[in-house]
Amino acid sequence: MRSYRPWLAASLLATFAFGLGACVTSETLPLPKLNPIQATGQIPEAELLDVGVRLFDANVPEAIKDDEEALAKKRIFPEVRSAEAGYMPGLLRATLESSGQWGAVRVVPAKAIVDVAVDGTIVSSTGAQLVLRVTVTDSSGRVWIKDKEYSGEADLGAYKTVAAMHARDPFQNVYSAIANDMLAAREALAANDRRDIRRVTRLRFAQDFAPEAVKGYLERDAQGVTSVVRLPAEGDPLMERIARIRERDLAVIDTVDSYYANFSDKVEDSYGSFRRVSQQEIEKEDRARASARTRTVLGAAAVLASVLVPNQCASGDYTCRNVQSAARTAGAVGGVAGVMSGIRKYSEAKVHAEALKELSDTFRAEVTPQVIEVEGRTLKLTGTAEEQYREWRGLLQQVYLEETGGVQAVATGPAPAPSPVSRTE
User: Fold this and answer.
1) Coil, strand or helix at 187
2) pLDDT(210) > 80
3) Range with top average pLDDT, 228-237, 276-285, 345-354
């Protein structure tokens, strides 16, 4: 029987190739949960920094933005990415708020002047994995986090029910990691640096309206970091007027922030369902492709083995020749069946990819532009929200000029002496 072993090996290889797909199983372990570090005490008001999370960059490659097939291969659906660019900042905002480590946390337009600004780019986003590239800077120009990538696998437990998705986002670990790194960067600053950030924010806002009036209050060093060298006098009428304008500006930013909160609430269920089913489709697609590759390779190997197996039978040994012929036939038939099974698996993978695209089409149909009324003006909060906010800032400039009689600053007598910067206040 020793001379029959090569033929038996060819037959067994073909049988293995054909039946491999039914034997593959996988076990998913629970994903460890990362939470934002909670404040354990009251933070001094002078050091309580406000955070502005700007809309994320959807990051649809310009070279293939009109090529649906190329985008689908990268699992990029432009309309979904556009929605994610407005939805994900809200998740980060909620994470930062829940820690109790910050002042007001808002989703803000790019032009808004805030103590700490967060910029994000969506590197990759599917129902199975999320990768964000994040930069965090403060109003003084100091960089806290520079183009750092945060990635995470989906917590499949969050996909089990709608209530589970509401309770914890599948990629909450990613947002918690960002929040904890921001906290570490803040804690690395001296207390006076944190206080200085708040002062710089107020003076930078004033500089937009009355640059000459606040000239000499701020100073930038060789590293591009701005610091306060002197402060306006207590009760300065110009600064009080600008403070009132800033309150109006913050009211508009609050309105913008509430819009994005409402937007997130509106799409949460549909987007959650999209991610859950897309994760399942991606898993099926990847499994089908892996099975197809294995079946095709082993099937082809079985065919080659059956053809190339050496002739080890004596010329008059008809029993041996019959066994050899049967083994070769079985190897060829089984190998071809394995190859065909692999081809069918590739087709199945394509079906899953198409299902994912259809899901994205369904989701994007629910994401439509929204408008809000602010101070008699209509702001369209989509990709042009930044332009609309710039118009609003222009309106504030007009309000300021009207209140000051059309000049940058009105001299009504000796100006109060500016105050030196206290390093202990």
Assistant:
1) helix
2) yes
3) 228-237
Which DSSP string corresponds to 39-76?
A: P-SPPPGGG---EEEEPPB----GGGTT-HHHHHHTT-
Assigned token pair, 340: 């065909």
Q: Is the pLDDT of residue 168 over 80?
A: yes
Strand order of the β-sheet with 51-54 is 105-108, 51-54, 116-125, 129-138, 143-153
d(Cα 287, Cα 251) in Å, to the nearest integer? Answer: 51
H or E element in which residue 132 lies:
strand 129-138
Q: Could you give the CA distance from residue 76 to residue 120 in angstroms, rounded to a whole number?
A: 17
pLDDT higher than 50, residue 21: no
What residue has token string 């001299």?
411
**How far lies 394's CA from each of 249, 397, 400, in Å?**
11, 5, 10
Host H or E run for residue 151? strand 143-153
The 10s digit of each residue's pLDDT in 272-311 is 887 887 778 777 776 666 665 565 555 555 555 555 555 5
Amino acid at 261: A
* Contact yes or no for 267/369 (Cβ under 8 A): no
DSSP 143: E
Tokens of 201: 């924010």
CA distance 288 to 83: 29
Q: Is residue 113 helix, strand or coil? A: coil
Q: Residue 406: which pLDDT band, with cuts at 50, 70 and 90?
A: low
Q: What is the mean pLDDT of the chain?
A: 77
Return d(Cα 371, Cα 318) in angstroms, integer: 87
Residues 335/250, Cβ–Cβ less than 8 Å: no
Beta bridge partners of 374: 377
- Secondary structure class of 228 (helix, strand, coil): strand
Q: How many beta carbons lie within 10 A of that of residue 28, not counting itself?
A: 9
What's this model's pTM, rounded to 2 decimal places? 0.73
